[in-house]
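subagent[fold] <- orchestrator: predict structure for attached chain, return tokens only, no commentary.
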Amino acid sequence: MRPAERAAELRRAIAHHRRLYYELDAPEIPDADFDALIDALGAIEAAHPELVTPDSPTQQVGSAPSAAFAPAAHRVPMMSLDKVVSFEELVAWGSRTKRLLGLEEEAAAGLRFVCEPKIDGLSISITYDRGRYARAATRGDGRVGEDVTENVRTIEAVPLELAVDPAELPADLEVRGEVYLPIAAFEELNARQQAAGEKLFANPRNAAAGSLRQRDPKVTAGRALSVFAYQVVSADLAPAGPEAAASGEEAVELETAATLGRQSDSLELLGRIGFPVNPEIEVVTGLEAVYDFCQRLEARRHALGYEIDGAVVKIDDVSLQRRLGATSHAPRWEVAYKFPPEERSTLLEAIMVSIGRTGRATPFAKLRPVRVGGSTVSLASLHNEDQVALKDVRPGDTVVVRKAGDVIPEVVGPVLSERPPGLEPWAFPACCPVCHQPLVRLEGEADTYCVNADCPGQQRQRIAHFASRGAMDIEGLGEQRVHQLIEAGLVSDATDLYRLEVAQLASLEGFAELSARNLVAAIDASRDRPLPNLLVALGIRHVGATVAHALARAFGALDRIMAASREELEATEGIGSIIAASIAAHFGADHNRAFVDRLRQAGVSFGGAAVPPAAPQNLLGKSIVVTGTLEAFSREGAEAAITSRGGKSPGSVSPRTTAVVAGSSPGAAKLTKAEQLGIPILDEAGFRQLLESGELPAAG
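subagent[fold] -> orchestrator:
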């Protein structure tokens, strides 16, 4: 395709998606895909300047305001931001800035920057007349927005009267910020939408925009919107003269006398007059410190309670901002550092169904591999039959895939404009894809089950769970190896593992004499796992590590737990009525008691007769990650020491982690993430102190 034809095609696609995003609050594709369209058009225009037109999307800001609202002209344009996605691009932006300002190397290295989260919301302009709320407008196309005065009035975080003497401020004062929907409010809103049988919002940004642009302010008032303010603008101080007006140069922050000569001063003023200012904002010196802020913010992005898609970096000195000015669409003195996208679109090749250890049949998407959230995704969850129907995704669709942090990737929905004609809705299979027996969905339940207890799919998952870390921890026995053993007819349930012989394994593909001996030795060692591990391995509903340790502390042996009444179980600290009922029901089933008897015959330890003393619960609410090899603790022993004291010992580092215990040969990725998040890293001595006192050792 010729460059001119490709450019025209890209402009049509961008116009279509821009209207969906800005005017209808109904985006079909992720931001990253939209940015890719803009970047592709920009590359063509850079190579062929003659193709650049004044109305090209690369020369525009936002989109035309909706006719549903009265127009609201901005006396100072609301511009977009140029973006960078790497340290190299950040340095290139800094080099251009240094060149435009004519700074020497030393002066450039000493530049101060204001760094703040880039909130994934809706830009807003709020005007005050003599300190009283007067008008609010969306960005629109940057020059004319939509008048949403009455809607913004309902946002609790927006002050209706500024908290200072109006005489201290210009009569006409404008505050700019970002309206957003906290994640908790977004989830609650979608729950209400689903209960009412209405369309779900794709993401918090989409929900915030849709909530703000309601014709009825009462609807907006019920949506729990909030705002972060980031800029003070005085129209009286907008750049004067035709040259400034033609360039669209943005006004600087308000300067009353010489008190607000820095962007950071303006942020302090915003806080004083009653606006929420983002607490994550930092003022740093030099681009390396800017990049460090961006890295730390990215590592914490899922702990903030609201969605961000990057950081905004601004030169702090207002006089330098004035000297730099702006291009036709973006200030030169600030830039957006974009994080890797957590949403992308790709082809849904097939919808398949997996069978879990309880027989639950879960649909999942087989995708054309796509890079999302820093990793390649080819499979994604679809949860259950109702979710597939609600999202109306069909094999052959282009779909939006989301992967936030460590969360399992999920399909958000289809890109309907790209749906090929004739695609039929997907129907949940009537039979199990593994054993081909009927699938059953109980009345009032969202999940569908294979009720054939001998289903190989369930067998595989049950045995894999039994052997997993946190349960019997049989090294070298993953799901694929379990599948091989079932296919070879060597095992049908976990108790068969204890009858495996080296000669049987050595005859299988992928095994040699040594690997067969190692697996048999690992299975044999699992006979002596602590009681909490065995309880987890049994796969009792609602019984995880914390509950298993509570049961072990209270009863001391599996036989005592099996003999306990529901009332005795419920009287155990940490065991509620639902968990007690689940435990009683599990051991009341003949096939589960028979399984336990077979484990007894295999020599599996069921715990001692004496009830162990309860450890002090000094780690309640704490999450301790263990990595590497400790001298005085096995991995299981270290985790048991944590959980027996009321703490948690997950396998990965997150913003909620209290500390990381590092033995010899620790996981490099865990240590790196802990350092990025500022999480304390303890040696074995520090771990012992933590166990004894419940407090982190003082930094030495």
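orchestrator: received. Logging for downstream: The first helix runs from residue 3 to 23. Residues 399 and 414 are 4 Å apart (CA to CA).
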